[in-house]
């Protein structure tokens, strides 16, 4: 009897745990987000710029990779929607669904706002300085003003503000995993480790 999924295909999601593809996407993105936020914390704490630190210098490229992975992950989640483990019912389940939806939306909006900013300021963006994603061109001050509209009150652009909101949601997500796994002991983490019980 398969230990992982009712479909017996370890690559696909099942009612008891996520399949290999979902798990690889989840943990790869978790590591890349850790890299991104550590870079921004280092930048703020030590007043560094991309020329001073490789971890900060890689921020645009890693952000673009995260956006691509996010699109792949969203499509894969949609394809596996009927097979995936259930969030359950009740208030906690609804909070989990809402929290995951918020994570998905922000994981897409954060890099998108960076690309819009690169387009609006005319700089453009080339992945690894070789593959053009947004072509440089004429600056669009009115769009750039909108992207930076929060800077006067918060000291950061929309991209930065959404980024820190995403970090708060990620911290909340991790907190709830800890609660599920070690306080409620319902083995929620095991679903993403591929070791259901």
UniProtKB/TrEMBL annotation:
Top-level taxonomic group: Bacteria
Residue spans crossing the bilayer: 24-42, 62-79, 91-116, 161-183
Cofactor: heme b
GO biological process per UniProt: respiratory electron transport chain
Domain Cytochrome b561 bacterial/Ni-hydrogenase: 18-194
Pfam (any one): Ni_hydr_CYTB
Principal cellular location given in the protein's record: membrane
An example molecular function term from Gene Ontology annotations: heme binding
Recorded topology in the membrane: Multi-pass membrane protein
Any single GO CC term annotated in Swiss-Prot or TrEMBL for this entry: plasma membrane
UniProt KW keywords: Cell membrane, Electron transport, Heme, Iron, Membrane, Metal-binding, Transmembrane, Transmembrane helix, Transport
Similarity-based family: Belongs to the cytochrome b561 family.
Protein name per its UniProtKB record: Cytochrome b
Species annotation: Lampropedia aestuarii
């Amino acid at each position: 009897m398969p230990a992982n999924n009712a479909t017996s295909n370890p690559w696909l999601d099942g009612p008891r745990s996520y399949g290999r593809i979902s798990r690889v996407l989840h943990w790869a993105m978790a590591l890349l987000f850790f890299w991104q936020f550590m870079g921004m914390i280092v930048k703020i704490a030590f007043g560094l710029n991309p020329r001073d630190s490789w971890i900060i210098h890689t921020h645009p490229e890693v952000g673009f990779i995260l956006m691509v992975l996010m699109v792949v992950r969203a499509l894969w989640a949609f394809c596996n929607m009927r097979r995936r483990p259930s969030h359950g019912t009740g208030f906690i389940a609804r909070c989990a669904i809402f929290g995951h939806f918020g994570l998905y939306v922000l994981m897409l909006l954060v890099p998108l706002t960076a690309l819009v900013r690169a387009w609006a300021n005319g700089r453009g963006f080339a992945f690894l300085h070789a593959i053009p994603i947004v072509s440089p061109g004429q600056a669009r001050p009115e769009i750039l003003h909108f992207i930076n509209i929060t800077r006067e009150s918060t000291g950061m652009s929309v991209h930065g503000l959404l980024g820190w909101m995403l970090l708060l949601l990620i911290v909340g997500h991790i907190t709830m995993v800890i609660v599920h796994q070690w306080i409620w002991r319902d083995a929620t983490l095991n679903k993403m480790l591929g070791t259901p019980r």
